[in-house]
Design brief:
The chain is 17% helix and 38% strand. It has one domain. The protein is α+β, with helices and mostly antiparallel strands and 173 residues long. The model has no long low-confidence stretch (mean pLDDT 86). The strands form two sheets. It has a four-stranded antiparallel sheet with strand order 2-1-4-3, with no helix packed on it. Strands 6-5-7 form a three-stranded antiparallel sheet.
Length: 173
């Protein structure tokens, strides 16, 4: 069982003083009611100031899954909770410099994307109506799973299984 809503993703492009990059990119907001917007299409400018501009970069689904309610609850306990946005560099010539790869409300899922050095993961403040929707989903679908400690299996030299019950590479002498 899962539910989803579409969110508009707002990215800030800011002038950079670095000699290696002309601009920096940072997700700054999400909003409901956004028109369909493919991440590969040209960004739509929303507002600009001196040295910065905000763009509607994509409209992406925020999907909630029953198996991730523990992560959503951790996120909702933060003040404020966040929506996490994963950005990747554009790879095609006509792609924007950064592409919105995905959106999640689960901090554990967001963290898993930090292992790829090409991707950028940033949280933006979760709008209250999104937090309420996620809370309702968690209240409906969350089930506490009790922790079960595994019983350690002892080593039997007749079976010859050195990895069960001992650490690999341990001292066997």
């Amino acid at each position: 069982m899962h539910e989803k809503i579409d969110l508009g993703i707002v990215i800030e492009r800011r002038d950079s003083d670095s000699r290696w990059a002309d601009h920096t990119f940072q997700p700054v907001a999400v909003f409901q009611g956004a028109p369909d917007k493919d991440p590969h299409d040209e960004w739509i400018m929303l507002r600009e100031g001196e040295g910065w501009a905000h763009f509607h970069a994509a409209t992406m689904p925020l999907e909630l899954f029953r198996g991730e309610t523990a992560g959503y609850r951790v996120n909702l306990s933060n003040d404020p909770p966040h929506v996490y946005i994963v950005l990747s560099p554009g790879e095609e010539a006509d792609d924007p410099e950064m592409l919105v790869h995905m959106v999640t409300a689960c901090p554990y899922e967001a963290e898993s994307y930090t292992e790829d050095s090409d991707q950028m993961v940033e949280g933006v403040v979760m709008p209250p109506e999104i937090a309420a929707w996620i809370k309702t989903f968690c209240d409906t679908h969350h089930k506490d799973v009790p922790f079960k400690k595994r019983k350690r299996k002892s080593y039997d030299p007749r079976k010859g299984d050195f990895q069960q019950g001992r650490r690999r590479g341990g001292n066997y002498g």
